[in-house]
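Submission sheet (multi-component)
Chains listed below:
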Amino acid sequence: MSKMHVKLTVNGKQVEGLAEPRTLLIHFLREDLKITGPHIGCETSHCGACTVDIDGKSVKSCTTFVAQVNGADVTTVEGLTNEDGSLGVIQEMFREHHGLQCGFCTPGMITRAHRLLQENPNPTEEDIRFGMAGNLCRCTGYQNIVKAISASADMLNAQKEAAE
Amino acid sequence: MNDQTMTPEERAANLKGMGSSRKRVEDVRFTQGKGNYVDDIKLDGMLFGDFVRSPYAHARVVSVNKEAALALPGVIAVLTAEDLSPLGLHWMPTLAGDKQMVLADGKVLFQGQEVAYVVAEDRYIAADAVELVEVEYEELPVLTDPFEALKSDVVLREDLEGQTEGAHGPRKHHNHIFTWEQGDKDATEAVLAEADVVAEEMVYYHRTHPCPLETCGCVASMDKVTGKLTLYGTFQAPHAIRTVVSLISGVAEHNIRVISPDIGGGFGNKVGAYAGYVCSVVASIVTGKPVKWVEDRMENLMSTAFARDYWMQGKIAATKDGKITGLWCHTTADHGGFDACADPTKFPAGFMNICTGSYDIPTAYLAVDGVYTNKAPGGVAYRCSFRVTEAAYFIERMIEVLAIKLNMDAAELRRINFIKADQFPYQSALGWEYDSGDYHTAWDKALKAVDYDGLRAEQAQRIEEFKAGKTRKLLGIGLTHFTEIVGAGPVKNCDILGLGMFDSCEIRIHPTGSAIARLGTISQGQGHATTFAQIIASEIGLPADDITLEEGDTDTAPYGLGTYGSRSTPVAGAATAMAARKIRAKAQMIAAYLLEVHDDDVEWDVDRFAVKGAPERFKTMKEIAFAAYNQAIPGLEPGLEAVSYYDPPNMTYPFGAYICVMEIDVDTGEWEVRQFYALDDCGTRINPMIIEGQVHGGVTEALAIAMGQEIAYDEMGNVKTGTLMDFFLPTAWETPNYTTDHTVTPSPHHPIGAKGVGESPNVGGVPAFSNAVHDAFRPFGLVQSHMPHDHWRIWKIANGLGLHG
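Outcome: structure written.
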């Protein structure tokens, strides 16, 4: 099948490559760019393990063609680590509050939580549960994920306040 | 170095040993997306495998035409049973003593069965080629009901025709697999005949699926130069897989290296050996290139490892005061097209004979009949220890049914029948020796925590309001007291394919006082790298942070039977403690030498050996470690390491009391969990944070199973729940918060008293949710209704009871 040229920004870096029109974004990220944080769990948009951030929106990359996001700004969980290599706030809070077990859903969870907290910096528990409902976890029962996101909100707000 | 300023308590806290809610070491990788799961593995020249699967549940395969597929550029091979047959690999042995087709050999027995295996240069081409393989089928009559199957003239397994003896005794019918009997049939029937009260009910535990978020997969890589086969995969039992691959493929076991990388959840799904593994190995041997196979979600739900599907007919006898005198159970077990259940060899129905539960039942009888149908094979323990979930659900429903018959409160009925604390070790009527327990204490604590009497008063008031037309919501109080049997198991009666179910740990202390430990188990999210280091830290006094833990590589880890059935802590955890104690024993001799006293004159003190009566004279484990590598000590070999293979003397018996309070809308069938209280007693607690996490996750799986999750078939054998659209996995939105609690009754035979906890919440959770639904409708005459209790089925209950006016 003939290939097309795609160019996008992934985690702040310009990348380009050749892809078939039918190539899914998740495969382009994982196979071509070797960004293996986003995972494939269902192929039907239900589980959210493949969640990435595209131009400020949470998107399931297992049902998005890379051709659709030509020129876009994509962030994956790898892009949420601090520049010095230390864990970002949400990553650290997931660890602190035992918000993960097998780790397979975690990249999608954290990437979605990152966007949720941009959209709503002061979410209630209900807001978090509703806002995370597109991401499935089979291990944690969500209780500690909710805690981790709530703690992330507090910490991010405190950091923001300190910076102002 | 000889720090004398810290108290023993402070020194112990610094170790982050047992009892510490130590943060997980795994999470630094996982939170950054730096896990290494099987689909993350990318090898040079790697090919991709994909299956052509049967759309029919029962059909003859008339022909397979590969031509169009092979003509597609990038397609390397298309394998069928014909290709595998010269190698003897078109069938493989199952864990249950049956055999199973790797690729369809003349017929298919379930929808989604593997018919041909395509190998191509990338996964897209492989998927294209799957579509181009032309298979001609001739449909056959389909049997999806095990009771029908036992009466039908239709022969499912023609390969077994004329075989009246199966792996587990005589076969009564051509679709019958085995009968397994436990207990005393005559005595039980006599008790039933003479009892004041007998309650009888059919309890069905529907077919479902473990559905870990990561599906099953592997990468097989045959190095033609060295003759060495490396097999990466989602294996819950890597060593057993190595032995099985060697036996099946003929490749010598020393030339096989099996590696389980990070595993994205298992829950039993990744215990078995699947056609994808065999075909990938063959494809790699044939092509000399690495071959990756990863199933998609639909394939996962349709073809690998279902769970449950037990029809349990029960009779329970009691005096009029509610003292249980006997239990009778006949189970019809739907095993699908092949008997591929993952159970210890001598237990074809797993540990279903734990079905007397937490109760002192003097007489009992259990019979299980395994049956072939046109459904997927599997029968794995979905977050459970070999059919314990089915057993717990059965007895916890029968208790409720008996309570209705006796017109008694179900909490009180349980209380008067519990095995008493002074009866342990307790010999059950169906053959188990329960190691320890204190059920009354746990039960009273649970009832008090939820204000049980208050809840019952509220429920009575709600019923009045409902009858008066003031509300359309009912309140259900779901009670469960479960007893698990985990930690398989003693080699004398537990093996899988002849491999004794011991487990192992090897510990090496480095000269500078840090360590590496390797185990025969493999974490799938349980946090072994965190918790097993804590056991070692407490045993030998080196900080857990200085101990690396490795699992899953058969070239480096000692042999073990893997992680499932809550066996890691009971078996490998015991091996870890025993290996650590061997190290400590040698360390004692080194310390005595360094302190110039007799071995018996030093004593252990948290992280050091000190001279008895002179605590200021001591050698820390760190100092001892260095001495082991730089001193010539008379009579001692250099180095400081040990290995332990632990054969447990008995199983462990964790237990718990779970209470669910549920609101049910009579008109819509919608439910809402208002409160869920989970008290677990898993013996000694290694890491409370991880235990709580396990309980949260397990109860959520139980919520799914009880309230909507199923693998459903239509009468043609079509899977109706093949994607996550139809197969219920709860989101954060419908999942409640849980209150966790505990009592601690250590196992008397386990080196550190631990019992295992990962599966308790699934075992106890399902009856708690189901009993809540039943309890809500009990005042209106409901006795028994089958799971899953989705909105439609709950609506039907209400409608059937005439509650819709």
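Remark: The mean pLDDT of chain B is 97.
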